[in-house]
Amino acid sequence: MDIQMKRGLLEAAVLSAIRDSDSWGYQIIKDMKPYVEISESTLYPILRRLEASGCLTVRTEEFGGRLRKYYHILPAGRERLDAFREDWKEVLAVYSFIVREEKTP
Amino acid sequence: MTKADFLNALAHRLGALSEIDIARSLDYYEEMIDDRMDDGMTEEEAVAAAGSPEDAAREILLNIPIPPPDPAPVKRKPDGGRILLLILASPLLIVYFALVLCLLAVLWCVPIVVWALFVSAAAAAVGGIIAGAASIAEGNLLHAAFYLGLTLAGIGLAVLLYFASAAVTKAFARLTVLIVKGAVAPLRRKGA
Asked: Do B51 and A64 count as a contact with CB atoms less than 8 A apart?
């Protein structure tokens, strides 16, 4: 898949993973696994980018005697998901054109 | 590979990042490995699942900007207002400029003396003419000849002294410019 397209898709997927409730790194990977495989090395920069762009915040909480980082979606992150949904309608329209059946001569 | 080995290897490769970014990256991978172990993996399996430290470091370095080196101190150009403020603000500087002014005053005594000699010679010539005319009127030709000689000598000296005065004045004007520049130069360096 095209790198830019994959990047956009993964960012939206990560935002979607924390949309309903705050989550942590490993849980995000597990939740996404049935749909898209993502490694921790791929996830980490995405989380950092989303944080830098104000789409999510990070807080550290104690869990089982150690610290764990929880990611919380911000309004900008929700707007990003809405925009993704809108954009995707256009993508689907172009897709249906690209994959239309060939006319037999 | 143990978790500690993995984190050490990763930290080693992230040297270019800021300390905060290195600590955050290590925290992230440590948490991931711990979560996988809580999920039932052995330490080795959990570390293996995190991938190689090389790949992890490459991904981080590609995506997290490396902090620029400390910017060189900005050199400010000295401006007139700043120098004036320095002068007004410091009594030491007032003393300094007073000394420079004294030096200039002493130096300018030399051209003043040369000009004074020129004026004296010219005055002697004028005096000689007047006295000579008076002597002729009295009929005392010996006195008149004496005053004529005095007048000629005065004119000759005056011409010579005029050129000497002009040359000395020019030279001292140049010297003054040099001294003033030299006196202000250390202040400019201080103000920069």
From this structure: no
